[in-house]
Inverse folding.
């Protein structure tokens, strides 16, 4: 019989240039255990998975499979050693049937023996207790159905070790229950499972052991029974257990309240939000956002924050409920994103490179983007280049952007300097409603402080700010009130000085 | 603080050196492509039983170095330039309009069908109305592809190619039916009245006032694409469509609009060709111009100011090849091979650039 860990990471590090993504991580995963790997976005979970599955090689340290040192040069090598991954994004052909998708990559070359294939799928499905119709078109299946195929495909390779990347994040509670039953059966077959997740409920449901990652390091590893949900939240956020979470009185609460107007800038009522794949992200949420306040939306990522911001920015339509914006008549979704922007809405998107800037264009052009109807920049449809360049030069000075000049392509700048330009652009013309999604994520301490200072400054000038953040320190430093999204529900809103980090942490954990 | 400044500057200088290093393989690849293409051409010419040197000198002389040749090249360059300007707008926006041929045909047919009703107007007015009619017709045909893309998500490359076939066959039917010449001899319309013809600019050449239309269009399109909100919006959509959406631009409107715009330019090219050169609509009067104009637009790197230069270059190649086909044993399709080599070279360079 096999003894010792099936997979062991020994002092593994991974660096990209000067950036250390993974710093000296050691993990042992035993045969037949379900192991949870948890952490915030950017904590290094996916880098660890990529090293386990042979997609990238560690810069230092060794990986052992059943005690034998291995150096994977591709996922194929890892597969040969019995390591299979079910990725968060499925690689399925919607116009093929379940069986045909199953055959892709697993069937040998030559004629497809359909009846044998169907039999094999049914056997595999029965072995983990799921039901699936091999002749169904994949395009007609829901997320849960598509996930089943990916899991069965992985099991068909007869792995000894199965990695599931965020498997439950997109599932309904009933489907998640079925998934957990399947995982239980997979474990009973002697297959070790690594569950990458940021849903704490999953950890306590089915995992034996848990490892917490934070900023590229392994914070702690141990039996799940040794931890309470609040411990894990605290470890994910601060790296320490139960420590450093005192509630701090909000010094600015009084001034903030004084600055508030009577009618809210943003009125959200009974909002139901769906993810792109159709699953429910938030069942129902209602809140008001007044002028001169910062309302923070906390929560583990993927609980509807993205969908909330996009609905308010007019980029997506909510499934149900209403959003009112005081600057415009009627329902917000009846206005175009352009009209919303002109009415005073500004948006710092969470994915800067993808949604916020055009990398190959200059700083000046990126500043112009988003102010294409500003009379100082565009008159009668013609761009006033001098004026744009002058304003950009001013912004470079005011925000301390490190660049060779307004005509430098923004892609050459560091992330922090790019973000400063985005903030400058969005804060121009004093917006009355600002949506800031993770505005300081990935920035160094000084730039983060600058970002937070700017948010406070504009709050005090009367802007209504919706701040989406996963960083409790940031929320406690600048927000006036906080709501938490977790497990399709909204908690709060509650004034910061009337709550504690423990309470918010418990909400985030789904209690 | 000082440490960071230092760090930033080292990064910047590292960026510069790698740019310098990046340029050389790109240049090498371009040269290799050209040399390879030239060698392949020489081989083909040898296969045809001619001396490559003689063919080359003949081609350059007839295409570029005689007044007659240059005149013929300029005549050919006028429609290419007009179409390529429209395509540049569309390609900048990341919309790949391959349907200029169809848009040209439909726009021209619409205008020619209107010719009878404007022939009585004073000189100039009729012509102007026909130019507008052709632009509207081309725009409408382009907008069909736009509608299919915005409404149903149909890929514009596929739909514009399909619409080319529809247009070609509709025109083929029109010139054999409703608008055929009274004699009913050839698949063409009757000759248009003299008052609707674009005057010839230079005695002894076939260069018409269409040249003025083309040069005006260069200036207008240059201004539109590089100096206005509209041109900027197109560029942003082409470079980062998601950022365009987040900044409030309507991608549907831009897509439909730019397909209509490039269709209008193709329609304009067609009517200028009819009013300036042929005097009537006949089947195959602009053979493959829409595809050649893609080469022109790409060669000019989508820069409106370079498009007339590229158009003249391809016009000269065309005229030179015609001379070669006339005076030697080398067949005319050679020019298509050269065109293909040019496109390959361009694509290769673009791919290398994206990788770097």
């Amino acid at each position: 019989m096999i003894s010792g860990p099936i997979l062991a990471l020994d002092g593994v590090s991974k660096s990209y240039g000067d950036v250390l993504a993974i710093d000296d991580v050691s993990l042992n995963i035993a045969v037949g255990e379900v192991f949870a790997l948890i952490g915030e976005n950017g904590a290094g979970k996916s880098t660890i998975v990529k090293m386990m599955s042979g997609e990238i090689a560690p810069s230092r340290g060794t990986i052992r499979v059943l005690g034998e040192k291995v150096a994977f040069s591709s996922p194929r090598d890892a597969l040969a050693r019995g390591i299979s991954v079910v990725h968060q994004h499925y690689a399925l052909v919607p116009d093929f049937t379940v069986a045909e998708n199953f055959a892709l990559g697993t069937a040998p070359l030559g004629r497809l023996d359909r009846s044998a294939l169907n039999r094999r799928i049914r056997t595999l499905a029965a072995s983990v207790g799921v039901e699936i119709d091999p002749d169904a078109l994949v395009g007609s299946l829901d997320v849960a159905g598509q996930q089943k195929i990916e899991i069965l495909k992985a099991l068909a390779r007869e792995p000894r070790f199965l990695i599931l990347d965020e498997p439950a994040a997109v599932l309904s509670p009933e489907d998640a229950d079925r998934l957990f039953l399947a995982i239980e059966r997979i474990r009973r077959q002697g297959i070790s499972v690594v569950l990458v997740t940021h849903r704490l409920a999953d950890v306590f449901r089915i995992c034996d052991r848990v490892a917490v990652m934070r900023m590229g390091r392994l914070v702690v590893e141990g039996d799940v029974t040794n931890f309470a949900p609040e411990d894990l939240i605290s470890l994910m956020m601060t790296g320490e257990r139960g420590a450093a979470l005192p509630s701090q009185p909000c010094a600015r609460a009084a001034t903030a309240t004084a600055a508030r107007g009577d009618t809210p800038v943003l009125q959200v009522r009974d909002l139901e939000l769906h993810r792109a794949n159709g699953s429910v992200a938030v069942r129902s949420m209602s809140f008001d956002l007044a002028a001169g306040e910062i309302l923070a939306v906390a929560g583990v990522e993927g609980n509807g924050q993205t969908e909330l911001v996009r609905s308010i920015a007019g980029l997506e339509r909510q499934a149900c409920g209403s959003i009112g914006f005081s600057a415009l008549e009627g329902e917000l979704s009846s206005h175009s994103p352009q009209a919303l922007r002109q009415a005073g809405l500004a948006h710092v998107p969470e994915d800067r490179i993808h949604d916020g800037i055009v990398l190959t264009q200059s700083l000046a052009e990126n500043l112009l983007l988003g102010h294409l109807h500003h009379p100082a920049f565009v008159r009668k449809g013609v761009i006033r280049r001098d004026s744009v360049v002058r304003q950009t030069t001013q912004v470079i000075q005011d925000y301390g952007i490190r660049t060779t000049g307004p005509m430098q392509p923004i892609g050459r700048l560091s992330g922090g300097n790019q973000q400063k330009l985005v903030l400058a652009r969005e804060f121009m013309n004093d917006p009355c409603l600002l949506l800031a999604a993770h505005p300081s994520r990935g920035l160094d301490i000084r730039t983060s402080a600058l970002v937070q200072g700017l948010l406070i400054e504009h709050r005090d000038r009367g802007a209504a700010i919706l701040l989406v953040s996963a960083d409790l320190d940031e929320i406690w430093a600048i927000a006036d009130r906080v709501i938490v999204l977790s497990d399709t529900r909204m908690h709060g809103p509650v004034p910061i000085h009337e709550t504690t980090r423990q309470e918010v942490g418990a909400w985030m954990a789904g209690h | 603080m000082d440490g960071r400044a230092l760090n930033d500057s080292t990064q910047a200088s590292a960026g510069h050196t790698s740019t310098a290093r990046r340029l050389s393989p790109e240049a090498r690849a371009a040269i290799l492509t050209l040399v390879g293409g030239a060698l392949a051409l020489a081989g083909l010419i040898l296969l045809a039983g001619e001396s490559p040197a003689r063919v080359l000198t003949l081609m350059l002389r007839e295409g570029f170095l005689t007044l007659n040749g240059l005149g013929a090249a300029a005549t050919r360059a006028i429609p290419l330039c007009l179409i390529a300007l429209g395509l540049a707008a569309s390609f900048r926006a990341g919309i790949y309009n391959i349907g200029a041929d169809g848009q040209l045909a439909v726009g021209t047919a619409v205008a020619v069908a209107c010719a009878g009703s404007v022939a009585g107007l004073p000189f100039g007015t009729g012509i102007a109305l026909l130019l507008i009619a052709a632009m509207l017709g081309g725009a409408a045909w382009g907008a069909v592809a736009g509608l299919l893309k915005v409404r149903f998500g149909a890929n514009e490359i596929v739909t514009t190619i399909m619409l080319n076939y529809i247009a070609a066959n509709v025109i083929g039917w029109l010139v054999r039916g409703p608008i055929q010449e009274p004699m009913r001899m050839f698949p063409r319309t009757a000759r248009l009245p003299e008052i609707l013809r674009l005057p010839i600019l230079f005695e002894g050449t076939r260069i018409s006032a269409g040249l003025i239309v083309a040069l005006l269009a260069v200036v207008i399109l240059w201004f539109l694409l590089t100096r206005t909100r509209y041109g900027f919006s197109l560029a942003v959509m082409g470079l980062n469509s998601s950022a365009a959406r987040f900044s409030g631009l309507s991608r549907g409107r831009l897509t439909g609009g730019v397909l209509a715009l490039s269709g209008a330019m193709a329609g304009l090219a067609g009517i200028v060709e009819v009013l300036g050169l042929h005097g009537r609509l006949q089947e195959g009067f602009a053979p493959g111009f829409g595809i050649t104009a893609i080469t022109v637009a790409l060669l000019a790197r989508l820069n409106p100011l370079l498009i007339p230069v590229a158009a003249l270059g391809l016009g000269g190649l065309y005229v030179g090849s015609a001379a070669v086909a006339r005076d030697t044993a080398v067949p005319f399709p050679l020019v298509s091979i050269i065109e293909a080599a040019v496109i390959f070279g361009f694509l290769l360079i673009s791919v290398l650039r994206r990788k770097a």
In short: Confidence is low (pLDDT under 50) at residues 1-22 of chain B. The longest helix of chain B spans residues 2-47.
